[in-house]
Amino acid sequence: MPLTPDQISEIESARATPRHTLRAVSEGMEAHLYRAHEVLDHGFVRVIDYMGDDGAIVQAARVSYGAGTKAARDDAGLIRYLMRHWHSTPFEMCEVKLHVKLPIFVARQWIRHRTANVNEYSARYSIMDREFYIPAPEQLAAQSQVNNQGRGAVLDGPEAARVLEILKTDAARSYDHYEEMLSQEGKQGLARELARMNLPANIYTQWYWKTDLHNLFHFLRLRADRHAQYEIRVYAETIARIVADWVPAAYGAFEDYRMGGATLSAKGLDCLRRMLAGEAVTQENSGMSKGEWREFEQLIAGN
Amino acid sequence: MPLTPDQISEIESARATPRHTLRAVSEGMEAHLYRAHEVLDHGFVRVIDYMGDDGAIVQAARVSYGAGTKAARDDAGLIRYLMRHWHSTPFEMCEVKLHVKLPIFVARQWIRHRTANVNEYSARYSIMDREFYIPAPEQLAAQSQVNNQGRGAVLDGPEAARVLEILKTDAARSYDHYEEMLSQEGKQGLARELARMNLPANIYTQWYWKTDLHNLFHFLRLRADRHAQYEIRVYAETIARIVADWVPAAYGAFEDYRMGGATLSAKGLDCLRRMLAGEAVTQENSGMSKGEWREFEQLIAGN
Amino acid sequence: MPLTPDQISEIESARATPRHTLRAVSEGMEAHLYRAHEVLDHGFVRVIDYMGDDGAIVQAARVSYGAGTKAARDDAGLIRYLMRHWHSTPFEMCEVKLHVKLPIFVARQWIRHRTANVNEYSARYSIMDREFYIPAPEQLAAQSQVNNQGRGAVLDGPEAARVLEILKTDAARSYDHYEEMLSQEGKQGLARELARMNLPANIYTQWYWKTDLHNLFHFLRLRADRHAQYEIRVYAETIARIVADWVPAAYGAFEDYRMGGATLSAKGLDCLRRMLAGEAVTQENSGMSKGEWREFEQLIAGN
Amino acid sequence: MPLTPDQISEIESARATPRHTLRAVSEGMEAHLYRAHEVLDHGFVRVIDYMGDDGAIVQAARVSYGAGTKAARDDAGLIRYLMRHWHSTPFEMCEVKLHVKLPIFVARQWIRHRTANVNEYSARYSIMDREFYIPAPEQLAAQSQVNNQGRGAVLDGPEAARVLEILKTDAARSYDHYEEMLSQEGKQGLARELARMNLPANIYTQWYWKTDLHNLFHFLRLRADRHAQYEIRVYAETIARIVADWVPAAYGAFEDYRMGGATLSAKGLDCLRRMLAGEAVTQENSGMSKGEWREFEQLIAGN
In chain D, helix, strand, coil percent, each to 5? Predict the structure, then answer.
């Protein structure tokens, strides 16, 4: 369980005291505020704050004096238009701030998204908690034989058991040694900024992470994708469900045009037109490489 | 007067309906929401939305589960520490969204601050309003004789009158011609995206502009500075007063360390230490150029 | 003609003195260095500097010790793969610096691309040149009747003549008045930072603009698109031809996957699969709005 | 030794073939190209490419047609002026691309500088090398008693020996286990993207890192500072020496105004003026907190 009773009590206390505001309010998002959505074995995603709602996107696109339009239906139509034509700035007018607890190897992928604000728990200043990500058995996958950066089948019994044993004992030992090096009982105690180097990449860290809706959609498109590593994908999927409650119209457009959509090359478009005209198009007469053709076939077959 | 009765009524209606929220609320900022702070002859600054307060800075710096500390005094001390030591990320955790009406030549300086989100009124899509910035007589300054990008004394009578006449008649004529070119009465009507090129740089535009508190402070430091052009400085000063109400502790630290503070070079520090030790330091033995020495003297004299 | 004899002589002198370097060199780009590619009536694009070539993209993607692969063909294949799968960071490893002369209303669109470095000629510090963009007759288009931000047919005789007359005389008068306000003959002379506000948006400015290849591709995709305003599109097209000489493999991939490609929504993909399976799909049973269906039909028809 | 004979031979081969270019060339930087500057026990910094020199800063600041001024002395004066008055965009016109090998805990600090381009060696795709940072004995420091994120005295004999033993054996064991989990001899072999989670933060990674001179100076100011952690500071110091050879005038200005300079608060300036006027200023009558006063005293004492 990721939260201590003290932390739960802090969250409850923050949720107990609604206040008045004149700002745009998203009821769907208010329901999420401060609550911890559990991810992996010790991680979570918590919404700390947000700015804007679907109406704020329309309001900014129109540079209007009041709120969005009266009719929610018109707003949704405009939002779909903006998404379809790659307008990015109106979506940047919504902002969200999350508190995330995540393994360091996930944090290292996540931080590559540069258009965001981050405050991470400091292992120079503070002592890390004894919490490590240990994959569930069904996530213990072999190296893919066809994709250098993918997973294959789930590991079999003895091999799986050995991997779990290694991960657990190495994590425990490295943390024991971390504590021993830090300890000042009868000795000086190594500096925190040095002792942390012994800790493996599956230890949990946490941060406050803030970004705008446009950049969040970009993050979700890459990280909720089936090619993303499972351990970051579950965070992205959790956030996606929250966003669907926050800005339902924008999320609907995002799902249709980005998550569920696809990009075709000029060659792909040409093949498609020939196929619709009844021509038998093959890799040989497509102008595509074998790899591209395979991806193209999968796309039009829908798998 | 910058606002029409319709616009005022939209603002009043937005202010009339407080709602509940669990988010951090800044009472000082709620009082500003949606109201138009008048700037120059037709411009304004309106707060459309905000995220966070002083406590949110502390909360992010500590990556904490609850809100900031109980004691506002401790928060202020930590905020001063963060500002003094150039910590930027906790200040990035607050965000503000403004609706600004401003002359195009001011907008062209403003947009140079790239870490911000902008939706500008489109002159490709819409027709510009007939509103131009005409300087007040006391702002009609001569070219500075000592500073290539500064102002000297206020212009004298006939010259001032002639300048005002030029600005007013050219603005009126260019707008008449803009309307004539657009007009479709008995003719085709020039495309809006072309007709706008006839409009001078003192016509007003408007935009939604959103940025975080760290980048806003950077904007204020450069644009509320006495070397900034008057016409952008008055916008910066208006925003500064709003920020003082929004995050009083952070603004206090900003005023002390950034606006009121100064940076000394290694040479400047060396001279200062020699002066404090009783030595008579002059430009000749300072190691500085004449220009640097003049700026150094002004700094320690406090003018 | 955009360049004075002095400027041409500076350019010739810069081109006359090749030096040795150990850096990656793109012969295609060396041929462009410093030369002015004329755009519109007084504008230009000049390459001032560049970093990297096709090999540099591969080298960075592989984090390799030496240069790219031996075989240019392998490089091109990898570059196509990176483009197809939206890898952006290897393309960020190439950089280009341009000197551009352009009308202010074009500059105002251009500057919206924030991930770039800009030094613009300062009208606070310096005096602007008397150069204005006056559209060629075939560019004098009417407002589109179907697209609020587009152009329709070219204007007819008397209306066209009147528009050109307005643009020319207003430009000339505003510049005469600009000079008169600045003049210090027998008077003080208005500050440059104020006088400039009388100049219309078709006056030319110039800047140094530097960006990386990934962001440049994004710029080209939006600005060389047929929906972009003609006056910025000609700059984008000029730059596109330069990029094709600089990094031919990357440009080829960009043309196929971005410029010539298209994005389909989930609904669009679904319709396509049904059509390929022989079903008669219409707007009514497509799940799309009329506007979306029209765009979808154009896409698969290839016009 | 960080480089294999193959890598050294690739570097030698890249250095053996100078080519002609018309671009700005910095002779000081050409001497560094591709060479590995060793840092820590297995790390390095290598210059892969650069754009611009001191003249390019001046050229951009003036938006000029040719190169910088004729006189290097004038260039240096202008560069000092630009640095003193916080002009950032001319410095952004120079760019550098580095290949860096560094421990992961250092990479995690480094990546916080967001305005940069990065391609990191992928542990999803590839297998990490068996190279770990083990501090030299004189860097094995105790936790500071006064600064939560600093180091105190060097550790004594038995404690130091025990720390080194832990770091070495844990690194070796974790890597042995990493290889065992990956191994496909007689079993499936765990996916690389999972196996890497067992590796500690002192394992070396490598990346291509590209940034502009303005942002590089910001990086150096924070990371070559005496408050920075030693392990990143040595990288910053290595880069600083390279930059001094690349753009000597800009680096000189940076040293004087940023590295050697200091920022005083409004309160600090006020105290200083009172001290220069002969007043005895103490913490009590300074208006500063004890912490601020201590820092102020250190600043004016020069230690």
Answer: 50, 15, 35
Domain definitions of chain A by residue range: 5-133+202-259, 137-200, 266-301
Helix (H, G, I), strand (E, B) or coil at B81: helix
Sign of CA dihedral D108, D114, D119, D122: positive
Q: What is the b/e burial string over D17-31, where b = at least 16 CB atoms within 10 angstroms of the residue's CB?
A: eeeebbbbbbebbbe
Parallel, antiparallel or unpaired: strands A19-21 and B19-21: antiparallel
- Residues 201-260 of chain C with CB under 8 A from chain D are 206-208, 210, 212
Query: What does DSSP assign to residue D41?
Result: T
* pLDDT, tens digit (0-9, with 9 covering 90-100), for D80-103: 999 999 999 999 999 999 999 999
Helix (H, G, I), strand (E, B) or coil at D265: coil
Residue in chain D nearest A122 by alpha carbon = D149
What separation in angstroms does the CA of D66 have from each of A60, B95, C131, D29, D214? 43, 43, 21, 22, 22
What Cα–Cα distance (Å) separates residue D123 from each residue in B196, D97, D107? Answer: 54, 22, 14
Task: Tell me whether residue A48 is annotated as binding.
Answer: no
Q: Give the confidence band of B149 by pLDDT, cuts at 50, 70, 90.
A: confident
What is the identity of the amino acid at A12?
A: E
Cβ–Cβ below 8 Å for A261 and C261: no
Bridge partner list, D244? none
CB pair distance less than 8 Å for D34 and C14: no
Q: Residue B295, SS3?
A: helix
Give CA separation, B260 vs A165, B233, B299, D270, D282, in Å.
60, 16, 11, 10, 20
Partner B contacted by C199 (CB < 8 A): yes
Do residues B7 and A63 lie in contact, with contact meaning Cβ atoms separated by under 8 Å? no
Residue of D nearest to C209 (CA): D93
Contact A150 D122 (CB under 8 A): no
Chain B residues whose CB is inside 8 A of the C194 CB are 135, 139-141, 151
Considering D80, D173, D221, D223, which one is annotated as catalytic?
D223
Query: Is 80 exceeded by the pLDDT of residue B72?
Result: no
Query: Residue D135: CB partners within 8 Å, gap ≥ 6?
Result: A194, D164, D167
CB neighbours of D108 closer than 8 A, spacing ≥ 6? A104, A108, D201
- The Cα A49–Cα A210 span in angstroms is 9
Nearest CA in chain A to C227: A85
Tell me: the pLDDT tens digits for A36-70?
Answer: 999 999 999 999 999 999 999 999 999 877 654 55
pLDDT of A2 over the 90 cut: no
Q: ipTM score here?
A: 0.94
Is there a catalytic annotation at residue D294?
no
Annotated catalytic sites of B, by residue? 223
* The architecture CATH gives domain A5-133+202-259: 2-Layer Sandwich (3.30)
- With contacts defined as CB-CB under 8 Å, which chain C residues touch B208? none
Instruction: State the best of C88, C89, C256, C258 to mutate against chain A, taking most chain A CBs within 10 Å.
Output: C256
Q: How far apart are CA A155 and CA A141, in angstroms?
A: 5
Q: With an 8 Å Cβ cutoff, are A49 and B90 in contact?
A: no
Interchain CB distance below 8 Å, D302 and B268 = no
Closest to B195 in 3D by CA, of B120, B126, B132: B126
Contact C265, C300 (CB under 8 A): no
The two tokens of residue D169 are: 């054996």
CA distance C28 to C33: 10
> Which residues in chain C belong to E strands, given as ranges?
19-21, 36-39, 43-51, 95-103, 117-120, 141-143, 151-154, 204-212, 262-264
CA distance A80 to A256: 9
Chains that touch A (3 or more CB pairs under 8 A): B, C, D
Cβ-Cβ contacts under 8 Å, D55 against chain C: none
